[in-house]
Design goal:
- The protein is mainly α and 287 residues long.
- It has two domains: 2-129, no CATH class; 151-270, no CATH class.
- Helices cover 79% and strands 0% of the residues.
- The protein is built from 13 helices and no strands.
- The chain is globular and about 55 Å long.
Length: 287
């Protein structure tokens, strides 16, 4: 559902700004959690997940990046970097919180609690802090992002960029899901699997370094460094070199700045006018 919604989300942000879209995301996510938490049957449970999918398509990194691009135009890069820096703490907070809620009130109660958080915290923050961008009329000059097609050269660049970002994202997602199994396959004792906790600090540290550079290099260099760091980390793990901590820190650092590159490379290559539209298209295969 997130993939289905992404291109339309990009168009909506281009036309109306991100504030109404992100507010809709908070409502959809709250509704999804509410339906799941109260689901009396499997079909209703699955309907709740459909709502969550739509909410994620309207409210995760890609719509947030498009919103920042719409608000700050070519100057959005520092804001995107800052967003990913703070977003890196999401799992640090939510994994323990989820475990605590499930233990205290069960999984249904945890879903209801998250529904309440989206309504009581996320929605007011979106409405209160995000500026309302001026609407773009379909025939206005600012609407060229939707109405003007990519040139053949731009289309080739967009397809290449999409391939690189989607493949890179797929590799990192698979590694993250199967990390414990990968470590055990390399002979790492189960007690040492806690090395995986090094990934998140490495992500945050790499994002801090990227922020400190203050945009002095092109985002393509950020993407290149991210891929090199991830490749080095995985190569060390695959080779069985006894440096698991180093491998995971390299992987985490690359993963951390990869998310920044995913938001800043399209902005740098194609400009701010078409940025929300292209981010929406880019999110579809990556969802």
């Amino acid at each position: 559902m997130a993939a289905f919604a992404s291109p339309r989300v990009g168009i909506a942000i281009h036309r109306h700004g991100g504030r109404p879209v992100l507010a809709s995301a908070a409502l959809l996510l709250a509704g999804g959690y509410l339906v799941i938490g109260l689901a009396p049957s499997l079909p209703v449970f699955l309907a709740g997940w459909l709502l969550l999918g739509l909410g994620m398509g309207c409210g995760l990194y890609d719509p947030a990046f498009a919103t920042l691009g719409r608000l700050y135009s070519a100057e959005a890069r520092p804001a995107i970097t800052t967003l990913t820096l703070w977003g890196g703490f999401a799992s640090t907070v939510c994994w323990p919180l989820s475990a605590f809620l499930v233990e205290q009130v069960g999984w249904r109660g945890a879903c209801l609690a998250y529904a309440g958080l989206h309504l009581a915290v996320t929605l007011p923050l979106v409405l209160g802090l995000i500026q309302q961008a001026p609407a773009t009329a379909p025939g206005a000059d600012g609407a060229r992002g939707r109405n003007e097609p990519l040139t053949p050269r731009e289309r080739r660049a967009f397809l290449l960029m999409t391939g690189v970002l989607v493949l890179g994202g797929a590799v990192m997602a698979l590694v993250s899901v199967h990390l414990i199994a990968l470590l055990q396959a390399r002979g790492v004792a189960l007690a040492a699997v806690s090395y995986g906790a090094l990934i998140e600090p490495a992500q945050v540290g790499a994002r801090v370094v990227e922020m400190a550079n203050e945009g002095r290099h092109h985002p393509l260099w950020t993407l290149t460094v991210a891929m090199v760091l991830v490749a080095l980390g995985l190569a060390i793990l695959a080779a069985g070199i006894p440096a698991v901590a180093v491998a995971l820190m390299l992987y985490g650092a690359g993963n951390g700045i990869y998310s920044i590159a995913g938001g800043t490379v399209p902005l740098a290559l194609f400009g701010p006018e078409r940025y929300p539209i292209l981010v929406g298209r880019l999110a579809r295969p990556g969802a």
